[in-house]
Write a structure and sequence with these properties.
- The complex is a heterodimer of chains A (about 350) and B (about 325).
- Chain A has a domain of about 70 residues.
- In chain A, about 35% of the residues lie in helices and about 20% in strands.
- Chain A contains twelve helices and twelve strands.
- In chain A, a hairpin with a 7-residue loop joins strand 11 and strand 12.
- Chain B has about 325 residues and is mostly helical.
- Chain B is about 75% helix and about 0% strand.
- Chain B starts with a helix and ends in an 8-residue tail after the last helix.
- The chains are: A alpha/beta (about 350), B mainly alpha (about 325).
- Chains A and B meet through helix 2, helix 3 and helix 6 of A and helix 9 and helix 10 of B.
Chain lengths: ~350, ~325
Amino acid sequence: MALLEVTDLVTRFRTDDGIVQAVSGVSFSLDRGQTLGVVGESGSGKSVTFLTVMGLVDPRHADVTGSVRFDGNELLGASFSTLRKIRGQRIGMIFQDPMTSLNPVKRIGWQLEEAVLIHNDVSRSEARRRSLEVLDEVEIPRADARIDDYPHQFSGGMRQRVMIAMALINQPDLLIADEPTTALDVTTQAQILRLMKKLQDEHGTAIVMITHDLGVVAELADDAAVMYGGRIVEEAKVQDLFAQPEMPYTWGLLGSLPRADITAARLEQIPGQPPSLLRPPNGCAFNPRCAYAFDRCRAELPELRPSPTSGEHRFRCHLDDADRLRIWTAKKAELTSTEGTAA
Amino acid sequence: MSRFVFRRFLWAIWLFFAATVLTYVIFFVVPGDPAVIAAGSASASPQLLAHIRQELHLDIPVYQQYWLFMWNLIRHGSLGYSFVNGASVRWIIAKDAPVTGSLVIGGAVLWLLVAIPLGIISALRPRSLLDRFGMIFVLVGVSAPAVWIGLILAYTFGFRLHWTPIADYCYFFPHPQIGVCSGAARWAYHLLLPWTTFMLIYAALYTRMIRAGILETSREDYVRTARAKGASTGRILVHHILRNSMLPIVTILGMDLGHAFGIALFVESVFDLNGLGGELVTASLGRNLPVVVGIVIAVTVTVIVLNFIVDVVYAFLDPRIRLNA
């Protein structure tokens, strides 16, 4: 049985301008100890998908349908107290901006102890002992001296370590990381990713890594899902996705990824803007930005269908197999060419 | 902390000079002879007026008068004596300050006691009936003059319904003299309408500010973090939202308390309370310089002390603020 199984998840927000459908029928599953990388631009619905999974979208503004099964239990429509027991205990979550994700007026130790005390009937001193232990685990130097500091006395990278410590303190089965490295500088990013990998190896935690950075997915994930316009547009094992991406949006993402091993003439960009979720385009959401779009793309939403090589690799695109192979082969040659080396 | 107190102290001294000099300047720019008023009659003989001028040191230049005042204050801790009846200004202030203090501080406590729970409830239930109703009271409180609110209250609850007294002050502490109204319960009973006046002026505004603060803080990332930790709604409100949303309220409270001393002047006159406000009005009209200066100093020092307390509370609430920085 999968640890997390999401089926046909739809999240709509009622706004003053109309209904915004942020997530439109997302399905995926994740096994224990596995890592799923969810890739997409801002507004692709990747964060909202997982806020919905956690029950953190405001029911006063949002309508949610579909199914979220965690360890066999349905979370959508579950009571607040049921959700509360799962949050922080069985599913930990870390967020993009460590500068604002910790309460500025409470000590780090207090915030860690709170996470323990909410879910466990233990003394404050026991909670403190666990907090120190987990701070050591996330490699905060001199944890016993720093546990009574306030968040503003920590650097961004250190705060993200505290966030990870807080998410993992109750040893959850699943960690949802929403762009955990986006707000950090490059060297700190690498340290945080290495730390997450180490902790996953030690505790067997399943991870959902939400990111816009394919490099992070390549580094950490087993499976990858590419999201666009509130839908999964391609999903595959990570190595398959990088070896043989099947649709134009993923091609664009790969083309825009800087790689040290290949000297591309210049990085490609995907022209245009992500679609408005208030008034999404007809047909395929990517068609206005797609260089290969034809009439059918503007009229009909492509179904998620298996690739010719693997049943686990699925994608949304109307282009036929021969065209896609031809375009990708040419594109790959272009991406890996060493001609016209950048000055 | 000590550096902060020291800087605050220097600031207070500067303010003290500014306030007293300004009072002297205004007093001597405004027409009217204090000696004539002290003599009690415009037709007093020139000899009597000259004698009074000499007695009150009005025969020397203004800057020397100011210097004399300062010297007496520093050397003897004296604020001088009333031109009208020779009473010590220090004694007058000591007699009146508890009345005004009870009025303003009690009023502030009442408006906060009303505004904090209402603010929290309207934040938890935005667009509810109570929330919309609150907006009407904000408009009333902001637009209606204190005198009008006071008179309406006195007429309705005092004169018509006989629920409350409509005037007079009762001492908080038991008074040795027989027949003088005193005791905590009577003190509060007599101040009920004056406090309610302040409450009507400020409570609705504070309710809205607290509501806005809580709603804004609820959208903070760290509140989402707390939810993701599995914290209960009550825990999130108490530990993560309230303290953070109170920060701006504390700042504004510090400013409004100073402002409330100005309003106290009107409230005192409506409810016939013999506080600093009424004393200041009488002294200004009677050209009674020492009393005017004394009250200005008392209010200035109070506002400085209140602002100091606000800063200390602020630093206590928000660890990012360092008082010695």
